[in-house]
Amino acid sequence: IIDSHCHLEYEPISSNLKGVVDRAIKNNVKYLLSISTTDESFDKILKIVENYRNIYGTYGIHPHETKNYQSLTSDQIVKKINLNKKIIGIGETGLDFYYDHSDRLVQKKLFIEHIKAAQTINLPLVVHTRSAEVETYEILKSEKKNKDIKILIHCFTGSKSFAHKLIDIGCYISASGVVTFKKSLDLAETFSSLPNDRILVETDSPYL
Q1: Rounded CA gap, 208 and 201, in Å?
Q2: Edge-to-edge order in the sheet of strand 199-201
Q3: Alpha helices (runs of H) in the chain, residue ranges in sequence order
Q4: What share of the chain is helix, strand, coil (3-state, %, to 5)?
Q5: What backbone torsions phi and psi does residue 170 show, to the nearest 5 degrees?
Q6: Ramachandran region of residue 162, left (φ > 0), alpha (ψ -120 to 50) or beta?
Q7: SS3 of 76, please?
Q8: DSSP states of 148-170 as a string?
Q9: How far apart are CA 50 and CA 65, in angstroms?
Q10: What is the pLDDT of residue 50?
Q11: Under DSSP, is residue 90 helix (H, G, I), strand (E, B) or coil?
Q12: Which of 59, 171, 191, 195 could form a disulfide with 151 if both were Cys (CB 3.0 to 4.6 A apart)?
């Protein structure tokens, strides 16, 4: 098992990281991917991946945080990625119109910069999308025409039609613990309708 999306640099995990990793290994979680949300979190991830052979990382700016990174470019993203060979993905990036912590136009601009970086160095893109199904799909579909990339939609909780539209353009989709909730019958049914070779799993820890 690979935890495809966690935040090991966040508390309460980071202060007990060895215990968390040992527990993961005992439960057959052999690799973990710690996902960047800000420059500060990325700096912590760099230290973690150097100290643990089974932990890898990404670089990206969460849509909530884009208001603080409005001038970020794809070239700058690529430079961050190149700091360590164990940084193997770009994100999390995307659109969150549920909370609107950052301006929607800024979110879109930064989302496209992350996509361009992924196209430049051919690394997978980790996408956060909430209450923005139409816009997320349109941007991914449009940008993939320029150059194809691998895309992972993390912690998917959207509609069945959205899931299948994403599958149709080549995306992978990740299930979190939300899919096991008693109230998540529609989401469970959605995942049961997806091809197994397009499904990943994640904890999104410490959140889910």
Answers
A1: 12
A2: 2-6, 31-34, 55-59, 87-96, 125-130, 151-153, 172-175, 199-201
A3: 17-26, 39-51, 74-81, 104-121, 133-144, 160-168, 185-192
A4: 45, 20, 35
A5: 95, 10
A6: alpha
A7: helix
A8: ---EEE-S--S-HHHHHHHHHTT
A9: 26
A10: 98
A11: strand
A12: 171
CA geometry: angle at 64 spanning 95 and 97, to 5°?
Answer: 40
d(CA 33, CA 66): 22
Token pair 């150059």 is found at: 147
pLDDT mean values, one per 10 residues, the chain (208 residues): 97 96 96 98 98 98 98 98 98 96 97 98 97 97 95 96 97 96 96 97 94
> Strand 31-34 and strand 55-59: pairing?
parallel
> How buried is 201 (Cβ within 10 angstroms: 0-12 exposed, 13-18 middle, 19+ buried)?
middle
Amino acid at 61: I
CA distance 74 to 7: 23
**Exposure letters 66-83 (e unless 16+ CB within 10 A, then b):** beebeebebeebbebbee
Tokens of 99: 């909370």
3-state SS class at 189? helix
pLDDT of residue 208: 83
Quick one: tokens of 142? Answer: 């449009």
Query: Residue 170 is encoded by which pair of tokens?
Result: 């080549």
Point out which residues pair with 6 in neighbouring strands.
Answer: 34
